[in-house]
Specification:
Number of helices: 6
Oligomer: single chain
CATH class of the largest domain: Alpha Beta
Order of helices and strands: EEHHHEEEHHH
Radius of gyration: 16 Å
Shape: globular
Number of domains: 2
CATH architecture of the largest domain: 2-Layer Sandwich
Strand order of the largest sheet: 2-1-5-4-3
Length: 184
Amino acid sequence: MSAVAPTGRERRFEPSELLVSKTDPKGRITYANDVFVRVSGYTLPEIIGQPHNLIRHPQMPRGVFRLLWDSIGRGEEIFAFINNLAKNGDHYWVLAHVTPTRDRAGKIIGFHSNRRVPEPAAMTRVLPLYQRMLDEEKRHRKASEAADASARLLADTLTEQHLTYDQYIWSLIDPSTASRAEVA
């Protein structure tokens, strides 16, 4: 599939809806629910077997994906605010919850993600940090170096604030802890 140019238009879905997908250990899509298919604009045959980064928006910090893959690769769950790119170039923000799927012996055999509509207040607070991460990435020529630098900026920023990544994300999700997460 060819690269899609962003349109700048945002797609929306209902707060009561969940976008669900499953992948194999390499990140190739093995399942997508009807909401995922509708919002992404792809048909099920177009996405099954494709890498999940098919819907990666180019203005999404690579460092977030570095953290995501490192976390799920260690067998941990992770929550992250993600900007996705639909087939036609529209974008849609989600709060993703990604977990490893294990076989009976405990071996990771894939990943499962539920995504929902993020709270506008959380988005307002996370976007400045994401912009700083993107700015850092622009300073590097290689994608892997950009991802490393962006992830390092995220880690350093959270360390300065005495927050773990989970504490930061939960403070965005739960407004009662919002004062702890002013990291932009």
